[in-house]
Design goal:
The complex is a heterodimer of chains A (1031) and B (79).
Chain A (H helix, E strand, L loop, with lengths): L2 E2 L15 H10 L4 E4 L8 H11 L2 E9 L5 E6 L2 H16 L10 H6 L4 E4 L6 H7 L3 H15 L4 E6 L6 H14 L3 E5 L10 H12 L21 H7 L4 H13 L23 H17 L4 H16 L3 H16 L4 E4 L6 H5 L7 H4 L18 E5 L3 H12 L4 E9 L2 H11 L4 H10 L7 H4 L2 H4 L10 H13 L4 E13 L11 E2 L5 E2 L4 H7 L2 E8 H16 L13 H8 L12 H10 L4 H10 L2 H5 L3 H8 L13 H4 L9 H12 L3 H12 L4 H17 L4 H15 L5 H20 L1 H11 L7 H10 L3 E3 L11 E2 L3 E3 L10 H11 L7 H7 L4 H9 L10 H6 L1 H4 L31 H12 L12 H6 L5 H4 L7 E12 L10 E7 L2 E7 L1 H5 L13 E10 L2 E11 L1
Parallel strand pairs in A: 1-2, 2-3, 5-6, 6-7, 9-14, 15-17, 20-22
Antiparallel strand pairs in A: 3-4, 4-5, 8-9, 10-11, 11-14, 12-13, 16-17, 18-19, 18-21, 19-20, 21-22
Chain B lengths: L1 E13 L2 E7 L2 E14 L10 E8 L3 E8 L2 E8 L1
Classes of the chains: A alpha/beta (1031), B mainly beta (79).
């Protein structure tokens, strides 16, 4: 029997080649009874470690490998929860008290937080072995004395390791002597850095990434051999025949270390109740029914029953405080005029709607509450709230103030290796030329996100075949890149997640600083759920910012619109959607959505909700879209296997589209409780094993038969929901987004000027680049004017049918400077570029870009001449030394020609597209139009007038080329082509793609010529590409 | 003072461990394996793992032997 006490997982960034789960799996197979996880300066892996250990019957020990001042590593193990809290405090001070990314612990710090801990002297990177190896005998003796003083003899162990390294025998003899001299116990450990021997090459590669060397370069931190994998107890006995007591002591330590991470234990904070309110439940009931009266006017008995049902469940699961907490955050935002709305499955709750947390009427729409929370699941409900992106941090600050900074922290995320980053890092270690890697990484399709797909990439994607990398090395690179997929690489801040804890955070989690300067806990979303923390997702949604801007622009224009009361049955809006003219609308603007709307011809809010759910990888792969459309249009009969299915599937024409429907079917047909049914939905959604699926199917069929359903019908229904369940989308989420989507479409239809101006102000947002949004605005008759130093505001503005681009759109323009420009103008317009430079502290780079994008055109028409003069008009302090300057060095300014010709149209467009992301002097394709005309290349606007099947050439700028997953596994490429006349969608099937379609994804492409067939169907036109040439 | 030799030799073993070898016609009996370790070499170039032995022989000779999958090599000798 043996316990592993020195084990590192991939959470020790680049210092391990195995996940926690793999380590536990292999340890269990090897007969290890107990194991410690001792990652470097983090406890991030402890939650998945406990989860995996529990599954495999291994006793988990919580530990950490602490970096001491000087760089040596000391292992500490938590004996109990008090010890774990001290680990958290040690790590917090180690991280926050030192430069970010360089945590370290002093002996003084250890002395403050030593209780409840066992100290091991560490392995070959530990202070004792290093002291022996580097002949720093006194240092080693000092350390041992200090550890004995701090922890006491019974809690300090001299760690012996045997990884078949040179000098091991002698070092272990010396360590054993030292242990005897200090009357300390010895403990045997094995430095586990990967689960199995086969993972050694990956570990060596990752080490090279960490120490910034190549495989060919030696480095002291690179492993000498491949022995740092899990050892069986027998192997450990064989390695320590002379130190059997050290082996036995592993078990002695394991017995003294209890399981300190309590998975699932709730740590909810109490909502601070106002005076006179006796309980959270009472307050929640009161607020809910107040809200119901506000929302509905009258609370009918059915609504009352629904609310009572939800409230009972919320109370029984002790989530009343959580609901109040979320309500309070939304209340704060609304009081401050911050636009917000709930999304996700919370929109299945009528209580959330009555509390104002969501804007989806779950009761009227018949949403199923159990998709959101159920007694059987008993999990913390997840409520995500979107806020106007500009004010999200203000809301987060309110949470910190209300609950105290010692109880609130941001959730982290782990940026994991993806195929591109893996290729860059590992390719560099393998000595591939940097430019080759850069080119390769840019070309790697996003599809290659999982290991199994990488292997076939070379065959499938023509752009990968044109690199100069020898095939064997290329294969090795891709193989290693596949193996490293999903390994944590960096820690970052979750977009919106905050945890709030009842006990001080430092007793359950350490804190560290993120790159953004936010204090984060090292546990991600999944770990937080297991730890029983309350998580608030306060998300930023720029669409809400654009909506708010639009409403304000309309107010200022004297044509106010009440966003809350936008009519949901506006025929003009539906007609626009039916024409597929959705560019700019939330969630509905992608080519797939536009194509869907052409066929769907929506005429009801429910159609928009369905559209949001339909255009997802799942429904597309699952071929849900076609039967849905066919049945909706009456081209296919709507049938049901059982009469009980009709009320559930009627609004989706008999097709299972939403996850809620799976739950309802299991409830109605097989008499599952809603909670059981949700579990069925979850099992189906997560593609479990066929045995598990078969077992669930058996249960479903048996219960259905017991419920009076014919056996063959029960079987057919199970197969039916099985086929669709994994593709289902949460209806509540679709409804939440669908409502916003429709309302943005309404603003787009009726107020295109203000709406497009607001989108451009909030850029980056949405699906398309700026020039597409501008092209669409122009197509709709909105005039788009360039940046003007005397007219432009910070953001884009509109006076009705004209948009003036805002200063913020100029690349490199800081908001602060834009505000200063507008503010300086309040004293009067700028009269000349010199006047501008006198009144605004502008730097050379931004000044250049303002000139080159035409911001001074009305003061000085010749951009080239003004650019030549820049150093004469700028204050010397603003000249700077920026090597990004496009212009000549200042000493050349004296060489200014007396009569300078202005930039050509081509030069102007280069500057405008580069620094404004859009051409204001014209369109890029206009430059090529004379040649294109000579060759008979059509404008895209002409395509709609051509006959079906006609073979033509078109040219334009490629927009958002992508390769979504397809059921057949064939590669189909979709992109749009934009020219000066508009935009047309292009589809390229596998054969054309493999015959040279790589040009679409080639880096730096600006113009493509496409030969293809016109396809006119479903009310629109597109091109089926046969050949693509980059110009 | 050491010399790197890298020459192939014949070794007599007991189990995995060397007990004697012959170098340039001279037989050596191994009195003690002073140290033993494993190295991976240039795995990326297809090199295999090797076991290194630092040994003391009769006549107070000190050597490092290298055991590869199909051969033994005398890697280093102390003069």
């Amino acid at each position: 029997m043996f316990a592993h006490l020195n084990v590192r997982s991939t959470f020790s960034f680049l210092a391990s080649a195995s996940s926690v789960e793999d380590l536990v799996e292999v340890a269990a197979e090897s007969g290890t009874v107990s194991m410690a996880l001792t990652d470097i300066d983090t406890v991030a892996g402890l939650v998945p470690f406990h989860r995996a250990a529990r599954r495999k019957g291994i006793h988990p020990i919580s530990g950490v490998s602490l970096t001491l001042e000087g760089g040596d590593r000391l292992t500490v193990l938590a004996k109990n929860t008090h010890g774990y809290a001290n680990v958290c405090r040690l790590l917090t001070e180690a991280h926050l008290g030192n430069e970010r990314g360089k945590p370290c612990v002093s002996l003084e710090l250890l002395s403050r937080y030593k209780d409840g801990l066992i100290a091991l002297t560490g392995g070959w990177d530990g202070p004792l072995v290093r002291g022996v190896v580097h002949r720093r005998k006194k240092d080693a003796e000092h350390l041992l004395s200090a550890l004995v003083f701090l922890f006491g003899r019974d809690d300090v162990f001299v760690e012996l390791q045997h990884q078949d390294l040179p000098g091991t025998r002698a070092i272990n003899r010396t360590l054993a002597d030292a242990a005897d001299a200090y009357r300390l116990k010895k403990v045997a450990s094995h430095a586990v850095r990967y689960a199995q021997k086969e993972q050694f090459p990956l570990y060596d590669l990752l080490t090279c990434v960490r120490v910034k060397s190549t495989l060919e370069q030696p480095h002291p931190e690179r492993p000498l051999n491949a022995e740092e994998h899990i050892q069986s107890p027998e192997e450990m006995f064989a390695r320590f025949p002379d130190h059997l007591d050290a082996i036995r002591n592993t078990l002695y330590i394991a017995e003294r270390c209890s399981e300190v991470i309590q998975i699932g234990k709730p740590r909810f904070p109490s909502f601070p109740l106002p005076l006179g309110v006796r309980s959270a439940q009472e307050m929640l009931y009161t607020l809910t029914f107040q809200g119901a009266r506000n929302r509905y006017g009258h609370v009918a008995s059915a609504l009352r029953d629904r609310l009572e049902h939800e409230l009972q469940l919320i109370t029984a699961l002790q989530f009343a405080d959580y609901f109040l907490l979320v309500w309070d955050v939304v209340r704060f935002a609304r009081e401050k005029g911050i636009r917000c709305t709930g999304r996700g499955s919370a929109a299945d709750s009528a209580v959330a709607y009555c509390l104002g947390i969501t804007d989806v009427d779950a009761y009227t729409r018949g949403h199923l509450f159990e998709r959101f929370m159920s007694m059987e699941r008993g999990e913390m409900p997840d409520i995500d709230i979107d806020f106007d992106a500009r004010f999200r941090d203000q809301v987060a600050s309110y949470v910190y103030e209300k609950y105290g900074s010692e109880h609130v922290a941001a959730v982290c995320t782990y940026q994991t290796y993806r195929v591109r980053s893996a290729i860059r890092d590992i390719g560099k270690v393998m000595s591939f030329p940097e430019e080759t890697l850069d080119s390769l990484a840019k070309r790697i399709p996003y599809l290659l996100s999982s290991a199994d797909k990488i292997a076939g990439a070379l065959d499938r994607f023509p752009e990968l075949q044109s690199t100069a990398i020898p095939i064997e090395r290329y294969e090795a690179l891709l193989r290693f890149a596949a193996q490293v997929q999903g390994f944590p690489r960096h820690i970052g801040t979750h977009l919106g997640g905050l945890v709030i804890t009842s006990e001080p955070i430092l007793t359950v989690s350490p804190l560290q600083m993120s790159a953004k300067g936010v204090k984060i806990i090292p546990f991600d979303k999944r770990a937080i759920e297991d730890l029983g923390f309350v998580k608030l997702d306060l998300l930023s949604l720029r669409t809400l910012s654009a909506i708010e801007d639009t409403i304000q622009l309309l107010d200022r224009r004297g044509t106010p619109v009440d966003y809350e009361r936008i009519p949901m049955d506006d025929s003009d809006t539906y007609a626009m959607l039916g024409r597929g003219e959705t560019i700019g609308s939330f969630q509905l603007e992608s080519p797939a959505q536009r194509a869907l709307h052409l066929r769907l011809k929506p005429d009801h809010p429910e159609d928009i909700v369905a559209a949001v759910a339909l255009i997802r990888p799942g429904p597309i792969k699952g071929r849900v879209v076609e039967p849905f459309l066919a049945r909706r249009k009456g081209e296919e009969p709507i049938t049901y296997y059982h009469p009980k299915l009709e009320p559930i599937l009627k609004h989706t024409y008999g097709v299972v589209l939403y996850q809620e429907q799976v739950i309802q079917i299991a409830t109605a047909i097989a008499n599952f409780t809603p909670g059981e049914a949700d579990e069925l939905r979850r099992v189906m959604s997560h593609a479990r094993s066929k045995y598990e699926m078969a077992a669930i199917g058996e249960q479903f069929v048996q219960k259905a038969i017991a419920n009076g359903v014919e056996p063959d019908i029960a079987q057919m229904i199970f197969q039916y929901i099985h086929g669709y369940a994994s593709y289902g989308f949460c209806e509540a989420h679709a409804a939440a987004f669908g409502t916003i989507a429709y309302k943005t479409a309404y603003l787009l239809q009726h107020h295109p000027g203000p709406y497009f101006a607001s989108i451009l102000t909030q850029y980056p947002m949405g699906y398309y680049p700026v020039h597409v949004i501008v092209a669409e605005a122009r197509r709709r008759g909105v005039q788009v004017l360039g940046v003007d130093i005397n007219e432009s505001e910070v953001g884009c503005t509109t006076d009705g049918n004209r948009i003036r681009l805002g200063l913020k759109l100029v690349r490199g323009m800081k908001e602060k400077i834009a505000v200063q420009i507008v503010s300086a103008r309040s004293e009067g317009p700028f009269t000349s570029p010199e006047d501008f430079c006198r009144r605004v502290p502008i730097d050379r780079l931004v000044m250049e870009r303002l000139i080159l994008t035409g911001a001074f055109d009305r003061l000085f028409a010749n951009r080239r001449q003004l650019a030549w003069n820049i150093h004469d008009i700028l204050a010397p302090a603003a000249w700077g030394n920026d090597d990004q300057s496009l212009l000549l060095p200042q000493t050349y300014s004296q060489l200014q020609p007396s009569s300078t010709l202005d930039y050509s149209l081509q030069e102007r467009l280069v500057h405008e597209y580069s620094f404004l992301s859009v051409g204001v002097s014209g369109h890029w394709v206009e430059l090529y139009r004379p040649q294109l005309d000579r060759r008979g290349v059509y404008k895209v606007a002409d395509v709609s007038g051509l006959a079906q099947g006609e073979s033509i050439w078109v040219a334009g700028m490629p927009i958002r080329p992508h390769r979504p997953p397809t059921k057949s596994g064939q590669t189909v490429v979709f992109f749009s082509l934009e020219d000066e006349s508009g935009m047309v969608d292009v589809t390229m099937f596998q054969s054309a793609y493999r015959a040279g379609g790589g040009a679409v994804f080639a880096p730096g492409k600006t113009l493509l010529c496409v030969r293809g067939r016109v396809e006119r169907a479903r009310g629109g036109s597109q091109i089926i590409a046969e050949r693509v040439i980059a110009v | 003072m050491t010399r790197l030799l890298h020459c192939q030799i014949e070794v007599v073993t007991e189990g995995d461990d060397p007990v004697s070898f012959v170098h340039r016609g001279i037989p050596y009996t191994i009195l003690e394996v002073v140290d033993r370790w494993i190295e991976v070499g240039e795995w990326w170039n297809g090199e295999s793992e090797r076991v290194m032995y630092r040994i003391r022989t009769d006549g107070e000779g000190w050597f490092e032997l290298e055991r590869r999958p199909k051969e033994w090599r005398l890697y280093k000798v102390w003069d």
